[in-house]
């Protein structure tokens, strides 16, 4: 059996984003972090079925100088305490102009995670709430689930599933896994 993964964006997928003028932003402080209900239990069930759980998150506010790297790391640590099933956090701290390979929509973070855990990308999933998440998943060759939260920004047009919540996305993966195993 090959290793399968679920790659998860952070803000808007695991935790509630801060919405300003229809756009999604990360919480500014650990105290502002609010994780979506039931996601931890669903992720644990999928981990118990053999999935590796990897968070892949762009955090450009570090490069922009508006958020300290320590704040991002503290938020990630708080999420890891709430959702201990997560295997790894991979973070891109760059801004658009940096030209890195890790910043979504490029697939660098997914490729790093796949190499680290020996992941079969075509049998894995990328769950995200923004176009860049879905584009990164497609570029890496994984299945994609777009959580449409109604932000005022461009939305992806090429994805495997479009849902309205993280819970719904994880139910799809559970269902597909059941079908593949039966």
Defining traits:
alpha/beta, Rossmann fold, 6-stranded parallel β-sheet, two-stranded antiparallel ribbon, 5 helices, 20% strand
| Fraction of helical residues | 25-40%
What percent strand? 15-25%
CATH topology: Rossmann fold
Q: Using DSSP, what is the number of strands? A: 8
Our count of domains comes out at 1
The average pLDDT score comes to: 96
N to C succession of SSEs = EEEHEHEHEHEEH
**CA distance, first residue to last residue:** 15 Å
Strand adjacency order, main sheet: 5-4-1-6-7-8
CATH class: Alpha Beta
Q: Per the principal axes of the C-alpha atoms, what is the gross shape?
A: globular
Task: Describe this entry's structure for a reader.
The protein is α/β, with parallel strands linked by helices. The chain has one domain (4-181): Rossmann fold. Helices cover 33% and strands 20% of the residues. A six-stranded parallel β-sheet has the order 5-4-1-6-7-8, with helices on both faces. Strands 2-3 form a two-stranded antiparallel sheet. Helix 1 (39-48) packs parallel to helix 5. The longest helix is centred in the C-terminal third of the chain and has 16 residues, at 166-181. The chain is globular and about 50 Å long. It starts with a strand and ends with a helix. The mean pLDDT is 96.
């Amino acid at each position: 059996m090959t290793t399968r993964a679920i790659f998860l964006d952070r803000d808007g997928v695991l935790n509630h984003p801060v919405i300003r003028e229809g756009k999604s932003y990360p919480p500014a402080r650990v105290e502002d972090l609010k994780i979506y209900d039931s996601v931890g239990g669903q992720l644990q069930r999928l981990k118990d079925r053999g999935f590796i759980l990897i968070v892949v998150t762009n955090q450009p506010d570090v490069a922009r100088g508006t958020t300290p790297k320590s704040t991002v790391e503290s938020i990630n640590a708080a999420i890891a305490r709430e959702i201990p099933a997560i295997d790894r956090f991979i973070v891109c701290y760059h801004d658009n102009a940096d030209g890195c390979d890790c910043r979504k929509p490029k697939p660098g973070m997914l490729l790093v995670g796949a190499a680290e855990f020996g992941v079969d990308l075509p049998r894995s999933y990328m769950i995200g709430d923004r176009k860049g998440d879905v584009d990164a998943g497609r570029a890496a060759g994984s299945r994609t689930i777009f959580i449409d939260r109604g932000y005022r920004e461009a939305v992806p047009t090429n994805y495997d599933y479009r849902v309205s919540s993280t819970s719904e996305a994880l139910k799809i993966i559970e269902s597909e896994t059941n079908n593949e195993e039966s």
